[in-house]
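Sharing a chain and its predicted structure for anyone who wants a worked example. Both blocks are below, sequence first, tokens second.
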Amino acid sequence: MSEFLERKVRTYFKVVDMNNDGEVSLEEVTGLYERHYDHAKADAADREKMKESYTKLWRMYMKSAESDESGVLTPSILFESVKLQKDDPEFKKAFLAVCQHSISPMDVNGDGFLQEDEYTKAIAAMGFQDPNIVRRVFEAADTNKDGKLSWEEYGNAAFENLTSEDENSPFTLMWGPLV
């Protein structure tokens, strides 16, 4: 596994580590979905589905690290987990479920897709605000070039960002400059 992939995982970790202490608890992971709702409205059912999908993914990260839910995720544990599970269809399915449930609160106009302005606001809420990079990622993720992202397009871009070792991938900077 390359240093490049490790840097991408550390960058993704920064998005999830809400209090920047270098560790992520289950509470932080489930709290991450609340961050999505700061700028959009969603009903209780959507919130619960999203919380369940984040919790399932958390459990997969921790199980691969041979830890229980009382442990904390660190950049090295996340890296090892991604390394071990990146080709596992169940891991991809769980990751894409998080992405699917993430679309709803970001979809401010309620059409079931992310427009570029909705995507930009959501990414900014996660702490990344370079409009040029955000636009390039959006355009690359929009594989059918209809000017909007389906949850599949968004999820596939995010999964490639997390797992691909292709340094030329347009999704390399999806969560910001690599750390």
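Comments welcome. Helices lie at 3-16, 26-36, 44-64, 75-85, 89-106, 116-125, 131-141, 151-163.
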